[in-house]
Request: fold
Amino acid sequence: MEAYLNKPTTLICWKCDVELANVSLPIRRTDACIRCHAELHVCKICEFYDPQVSDSCREPIADSVSNKERANFCGYFTPKPLAYEPDDTHAQSTALDQLNALFEEQDKTSRQSTSLKERSDSTNKKAKQQLNKLFGSD
Reply:
């Protein structure tokens, strides 16, 4: 019960992080942010929104909503205070760098194995020539 009492009640725009002090509850489908004009009755500001679960919604019987950033008619919509989540561009760029490094490493390994195969083929060819000389067949 204490956690509920300490929960912030100020709504924040999910898109631009401005305080939504003038928005009355319940949020209507037509309500929009005063600064960026983003629609507010959207999945991204809902308590049940979770991009890591199926259909990005933790409410198991809610209807599927295809665009999580557009106003919808979901009856389970519950606005979440402090819903703004800035893009984590550092994490994205780090992951991309790691992915590129992985493919570069694979490409380097592939080139090395091709080079080894070529050397092996050359060695095999020389060995065959020497055997043919030794046994007198060309």
The chain has two domains: 1-86, 89-138. Residues 89-138 form one domain.
